[in-house]
């Protein structure tokens, strides 16, 4: 029974069988063909038996292995590899079907390969999850054909594996690497021009091209003036180097209410906010600040106090992994009460939420103003990209004119929200979801450069 379960018929056999049947039918009209067809049919049966013997004469004649990360990164292209090894003594055509989790809703994970005897080969492809949680991978099904190509033998490997999908740690590592090499501008993070200096003096060091000449330390420079053997003076310019103030608390306040359920390119706004919070927390820790997380919806969820110890990023990652959208109205009063109770030191609060109308924002404005009174508040909400694409298209009839007029109204209200929040000294970011991370990191670096936190 095990042998028959692994035995499949190739399409070449069906074509050959149809051809034989048609020729047998033709033999009734031309009897001279009938003896030849008997011989052809016998040869056909022998070829099937030979094909089956070649496939099943060895017990473990083929090997495959799926290699995937211990966890997948949400919203990113995650690389997977399937290694194939042909242990047969003949060239084998191979069809590989990988049983990926049902969350991907893909039925096209079929690969074909041609392997020489004793040859190994790697098949690489990518998967992009759009929802956090546990994903169950099934078996790797390998169908092997001999050069005759009449029968297939199925091998099954990697019988089931559970993998967790975490917030976008690949994006976090990318930003961390570029920050360490001072190349954040490659992914849209702008260079911020410093206005003045922070209050923390770091060291006196030699001048290098690009340093601010206003920071030259003339006393230290005079001590570095020496006479050369030729009787001339050699001077090394020295400057005062300053560093950003450290250990400043940075909190990401993540709204989990129904306004964050809206989808964009497969991800919800909550997932975009979670991915941006993970990246920003890592950048803040790299800048020697303290990073913390607070989630809320109709009530306050989890609070992770700001810290910069070695295990803080792991705590942030595990906390963000478990967050889910709630379908109730967000309670900003509970948020304000929790911040007032648990966050006593003046901090940078990055509030990830979404406002569609001015009236919706004005209902929460009293609590936003109170938060801004004790902390530096940065409100981050989202631009409707579908609406923007509608506005960029010309109107062809009356109905589209009405649609564009309504769209202009909603777009104008978003701009009014930014303007009204700015009147009360509240920093804002209105951004498209795909630009959220870069714009948030830009604003954080700008606020640090201006010495506002």
TrEMBL record:
SUPFAM superfamilies recorded: vWA-like
Cross-referenced InterPro entries: DUF58, vWFA_dom_sf
Alphabetically ordered keywords of this record: Membrane, Transmembrane, Transmembrane helix
Residue spans crossing the bilayer: 7-30, 36-56
Domain DUF58: 203-379
A Pfam family assignment: DUF58
Cited PANTHER family: BLL2464 PROTEIN (PTHR33608), SLR2013 PROTEIN (PTHR33608:SF3)
UniProt name for this protein: DUF58 domain-containing protein
Organism: Spirosoma profusum
